[in-house]
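Progress note, sequence design subtask.
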């Protein structure tokens, strides 16, 4: 009897944990997201900047813009897997490849909306960008409320260009943690933003995503 009770408990906990993780990207289409392209507006991606093929989200980078969730999130653990493509476009054709995950996105659509960014850029994955006066406490001191504030990662754990990387963002009760390939690379507390949508950029470089999963905390 005790064995059966224990087995039921294990099954229950396992099912609860399985239900907790949600895939924001289904590998088939962009259900649950909408696009915004600079100078084109909402859901007007006639150039095909964002597409899904063979289970991958493909972002050409040819135009600046993004896809953003229709839902808002507060406390969460986000996991994405990405790798760089080959193509780069003006005005960044001679610069390092750039992309990013913005979270706690608020206000109206524009490039770029008020939010916290986890930078995805060759050599800089895990940096914070605090957009439009957002602030964090870093190493005991609150950042200045500026148009764009950068907080450089504490360590580098990005894999070489062309390989798959695993990026995690844990945001809970104002604490924001960026994890690259299993290593914490940046962290801040007491965020001035604590709820909003999640956004994936197009910013001049080709990139692929094969996983975008979220767990509520």
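Output:
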């Amino acid at each position: 009897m005790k064995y059966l009770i224990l087995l039921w408990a294990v099954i229950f906990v396992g099912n609860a944990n399985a239900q907790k993780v949600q895939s924001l990207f289904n590998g088939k289409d962009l259900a649950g997201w909408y696009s915004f392209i600079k100078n084109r507006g909402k859901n007007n991606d006639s150039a095909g900047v964002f597409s899904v093929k063979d289970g991958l989200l493909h972002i050409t980078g040819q135009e600046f813009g993004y896809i953003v969730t229709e839902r808002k999130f507060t406390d969460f653990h986000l996991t994405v897997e990405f790798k760089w493509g080959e193509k780069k476009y003006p005005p960044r054709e001679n610069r390092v490849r750039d992309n990013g995950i913005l979270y706690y996105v608020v206000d109206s659509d524009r490039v770029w909306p008020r939010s916290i960014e986890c930078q995805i850029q060759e050599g800089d994955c895990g940096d914070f960008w605090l957009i439009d006066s957002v602030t964090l406490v870093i190493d005991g001191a609150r950042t200045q409320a500026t148009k764009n504030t950068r907080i450089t990662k504490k360590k580098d754990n990005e894999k070489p260009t062309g390989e798959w990387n695993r990026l995690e963002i844990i945001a809970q009760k104002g604490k924001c943690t960026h994890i690259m390939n299993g290593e914490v690379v940046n962290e801040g507390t007491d965020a001035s933003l604590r709820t909003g949508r999640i956004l994936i950029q197009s910013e001049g470089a080709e990139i692929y995503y094969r996983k975008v999963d979220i767990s509520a905390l």
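The mean pLDDT is 93. Work on this subtask will continue into the next period as scheduled.
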